Amino acid sequence: MSEVRTRFAPSPTGYMHIGNLRTALYTYLLAKKNGGKFILRIEDTDRERYVDGAVDVIYKTLRDCGLNWDEGPDIGGDYGPYVQSERMGMFKDYAEELVKKGKAYYCFCTKERLEELAAVQKASNISPMYDRHCRNLSKEEIEKNLAEGVPYVIRQAIPEEGSTTFHDEIYGDITVENSILDDQILLKTDGMPTYNFANVVDDHTMKITHVVRGNEYLSSAPKYNLLYEAFGWEPPMYIHVEHIMKDAQHKLAKRDGDASFQDLLDKGYMTEAILNYILLLGWAPKGENEIFSLDEMVEAFDLSGISKSPAIFDPQKLKAINAHYVRALPIEKFTEIAVPYIRETCKREDVDLDLLCRVLQPRAELFTDIPEQVDFIDKLPEYSTELYVNKKMKTTAETSLDALKKILPILEGLSDFTQEKIHDALFALIEREGVKNGVILFPLRVALSGKQFTPGGGVELAAILGKEDSLSRIRKGIELLSAQ
RNA sequence: GGCCCGUUGGUCAAGAGGUUAAGACUCCAGAUUUUCAUUCUGGCAUCAUGGGUUCGAUUCCCGUACGGGUCACCA
């Protein structure tokens, strides 16, 4: 077989839906898996929808994800141009070629007539379809209309009988009756191609071998096939992928707030995690591993793993995967990214950021959670003594008060307030008392933070807060518990 | 409504005509742990439904229900 050439052909809307991104990913993986080429083509024929800077959004997203294209508008290639609006010249010729072959025809019907027709059909409860009024116009009539400059479109002449079968790599063979296929418009009144027509011609002229696209095109695939047949061209392999859903009945939509790559980025997810998660939404790996770098994805990707049914987007799992990536970061890298987030709520200059990051990393799922996680450092929040009660730790208000009273003098006596010294001193206490670690350490953690979850345990928090602040917070804890 | 596609646990999902029906996330229980967290161990499903084929079907076929898609001079 010749070289595999796949293409991602987005419209520049300024918005990269993750379903689209996932299509791009699969398209990319399919090409790379087979040592082929991944091509970017911008489909910008809809001028009304054109948004400034939208193409840059596509470039940036793809590049950030590592989905680098081998041919495209910015880098060129042998089959350009790669922006659809720049390829307009050729479509009319191709459409006329089809007319000559008897596979398409001129249609001079006015918009009014078509609307009327649709209304009548709708009223009698039959699905709207063009009635092929112009399909059998005489040569003379056509010539006359053309000469008079009557506006026209060119429509595809669907066979009147029989059925059309096309093959999809995921769904297998799909057959439909030709009788339900509409004589769709190929070339519009303004001489521009319709999307479906442009797609076929572009894919063929760019020598695309595999087309990965959303499931919404499954219904129009037979018409595509007929077009390829009409031209005498070899159709590409089709790979239709299902939608990403918000729930069982709704597609993940823009208004849901996490439908685009940018939305997810804004929520603090890492690019690698997003890509890894969407890979899994609709595709299943052969083995048990679910964590993949882009290179590993290329290695593991296989069309047979693509799912036939829609997948519901699960933020919880995305978060878990993100947590995995956050924790796998080298500590220097984690620190570099985390410090700005820490500084949002923790302005104190004397905190040991290295220590803080070290304890924060295993507890971080999202970088955007960090400000809230460290907000207690600058100022002890108001908290309820309920926090001191923990069944598992076997702590109560009484045992906690007792513990804090014992901790206080010990920490007061420490001249060298380092993590190591604090640890040794407190563990000596624990041993003397003959209690579980938690009985001493749990109340300390609560007193120092006023929070249920904290980055680090009591010892670490004490070291981070420093002697003076730690002691004052412990005294505050004793005061609160004594007041009960 | 016509046509097309789908349906395995709360979610993503593997899987094969006869299996203890993988794995991941969540949840629950327990163990470690410088307490919470992390980490580790364990627990939670008869595969939408009715019928058929078969010695045997969740796996093959047909119907039903439910869900999605599509029926533009939009892409």
Write a structural description:
The protein is mainly α and 484 residues long. Helix content is 44%, strand content 10%. The chain contains 19 helices and twelve strands. It has helices spanning 18-33, 54-64, 89-100, 111-123, 139-147, 195-205, 221-231, 261-266, 271-280, 294-300, 315-328, 331-345, 353-360, 370-373, 397-412, 419-433, 437-449, 458-465, 467-482; strands at 5-8, 37-40, 104-107, 153-156, 163-168, 172-177, 185-187, 210-214, 237-241, 244-247, 250-251, 311-312. The strands form five sheets. It has a three-stranded antiparallel sheet. A three-stranded mixed sheet has the order 11-10-12, with no helix packed on it. Strand 10 and strand 11 (250-251) form a beta hairpin. The longest helix has 16 residues, at 18-33. It binds one RNA strand of 75 nucleotides through helix 4, strand 6, helix 6, strand 12 and helix 11.
Task: Quickly describe the structure.
The chain has 484 residues and is mainly alpha-helical.
Descriptive labels:
3-stranded antiparallel beta sheet; RNA-binding; 3-stranded mixed beta sheet; 19 helices; 12 strands; mainly alpha; 484 residues
Estimate what percentage of residues fall within beta strands.
Answer: 5-15%
Which class do the helix and strand fractions yield? mainly alpha
Number of helices: 19
Q: Based on Cα principal axes, name the global outline.
A: elongated
The number of strands is: 12
Give the neighbour order of strands across the main sheet. Answer: 3-4-7
Q: Give the N-to-C terminal Cα separation.
A: 81 Å
Q: What is the makeup of the main sheet?
A: 3 strands, antiparallel
